[in-house]
From TrEMBL:
It comes from Nitrosospira lacus. This is FAD-binding domain-containing protein. NCBIfam families: GG-red-SF. One of its GO terms (molecular function) is oxidoreductase activity, acting on the CH-CH group of donors, NAD or NADP as acceptor. InterPro entries: FAD-bd, FAD/NAD-bd_sf, Geranylgeranyl_Rdtase_fam, Geranylgeranyl_reductase. It comes from the Bacteria. Residues 5-299 form the FAD-binding domain. Pfam families: FAD_binding_3.
């Protein structure tokens, strides 16, 4: 079976759906392919930070998400020595099973043709104008043609390699999470909780409240730390040590097993574009190092790639690829700082001092708030004067 579209989008997560909806609203015909049958679960912490809310607004879906997500009004940082500080930032939380279904519906309603159960196998450049993309559908090879292809297959390296965008197969991070329902605890707080603790050396733990009193609790490791850890063991230690986690588990009902997944972070290890084939979302490393948040940047890069195609397609592949790469370059400085700042998680003394200083000092608190809200330069995390203040004031 052969099908022709203006754009073939491979992967119907946040990146693929955001791109498909944006392109389809501009009048292009879109084939959106995914190997999974939806609704499908994606292992995630489920937190929507300000960049995700911003992208949802741009897609015209913020209202719908607000209606079914759990809105949070801050982020509580807890350090190893028990010091806490609340960061003012808007956010939300909802299970990816529901969010991704909503995003997919948002694409389909604009006219996008969704084809589930299609496992991407190969892509061929037919005549430098048209791509043929091959999928395995229940043991049979089926093809689709389009002048533009967007790869949005997430962290796993195999499809990125098949598309010719992979430079380095290693995913720099790994995280595990579990769902636990606890109604009494749900009445007590509505913040995203980030915990820096020695049981999660090289990363952090989280407890995020979601709809229906279901919490998402997990731990993640960044940089090289994930190579040296045993996530299940460290998760158990994390729960045993943190009083809030103990309360959650003791009085709560476990509603899912512990599940883990790699994260492709740092805008590194892949090429963003090859001719008319562009990589979007986590497959090109759009998940933040340091925080592990990636839903927002997945949607944002999906929108950026779609806008590059809409604005420049008449000028050819090189113009589209260049426009997209330029917009990715704008994101690079923040990712570069976050990549370097991952060392902090290996030094509990430093995270203690940072949380303590953030609690005491309005200016530092403003800067940390700016990190989440994307209103300040995160470079202070790496400067000597910045750390002199944090350590000695
Ligand atoms: C444990 C954990 C916790 C996290 N917590 C958060 C958080 O709280 N907040 C946050 O913002 N981010 C979080 N992230 C990161 C976030 O999950 C990713 O950044 C985000 O899912 C990336 O979206 P995407 O659309 O690029 O890829 P994905 O969401 O992975 O979607 C990729 C899609 O491609 C499909 N696909 C894959 N291979 C193929 C193939 N061969 N053929 C066809 N289709 C294919 C998949 O089925 C999937 O539907 C977390 C990640 C992990 C692992």
């Amino acid at each position: 079976m052969e099908r022709a579209y203006d754009v073939v989008v491979i992967g119907a997560g946040p990146a693929g759906c955001a791109a498909a909806r944006t392109l389809s609203r501009a009048g292009l015909s879109i084939g959106l392919f995914d190997k999974a049958v939806f609704p499908r679960d994606k292992t995630c912490g489920d937190a929507l930070i300000p960049d995700a809310l911003h992208a949802l607004k741009k897609l015209g879906l913020a209202q719908r998400v607000a209606q079914i997500s759990y809105s949070v009004h801050g982020m509580r940082l807890i350090s190893c020595d028990g010091t806490e500080v609340v960061i003012r930032a808007h956010g939300a939380c909802m299970q990816r099973l529901k969010l991704d279904e909503l995003l997919l519906d948002g694409a389909i309603e604009t006219g996008v043709k969704f084809l589930p159960g299609h496992d991407f196998c190969a892509v061929f450049d037919e005549n430098e104008k048209l791509y043929r993309v091959e999928f395995n559908k229940g043991g049979e090879i089926v093809s689709a043609h389009a002048p533009w292809v967007l790869l949005a297959t997430g962290a796993h390296p195999a499809p990125i390699k098949r598309a010719g965008l992979l430079l380095n197969a290693e995913c720099r991070s790994f995280a595990v999470r579990q769902y636990v329902r606890n109604e009494p605890l749900a009445k007590k707080f509505n913040e995203l909780i980030f915990v820096f603790d020695t049981t999660v050396r090289g990363g952090y733990g989280w407890i995020f409240p979601g709809p229906d009193a279901v919490f998402n609790i997990g731990i993640g490791f960044f940089g090289s730390a994930h190579k040296h850890t045993n996530p299940r063991r460290d998760y158990e230690r994390f729960i045993a040590k943190l009083p809030l986690a103990q309360e959650l588990m003791r009085d709560g009902e476990i509603v899912s097993p512990l599940r883990g997944a790699p994260l492709r972070t740092g805008l590194s290890g892949t090429r963003f574009a090859d001719g008319g084939l562009l990589g979007i979302g986590e497959c090109v490393g759009t998940t933040f190092p340091l925080t592990g948040e990636g839903i927002g940047k997945a949607m944002e890069t999906g929108i950026l790639a779609a806008e590059a195609i809409i604005g420049k397609c008449q000028l050819g592949r090189a113009a589209v690829a260049q426009t997209y790469k330029r917009s990715m370059d704008v994101l690079q400085p923040k990712f570069a700082v976050y990549r370097k700042a991952e060392f902090l998680f290996n030094w509990p003394y430093l995270t203690n001092r940072l949380v303590r200083h953030t609690r005491r000092n309005e200016t530092t608190r403003g800067k940390v708030e700016g990190l989440f809200n994307e209103t300040t330069d995160p470079a202070f995390l790496l400067t000597l004067p910045g750390w002199m203040k944090i350590l000695f004031h």
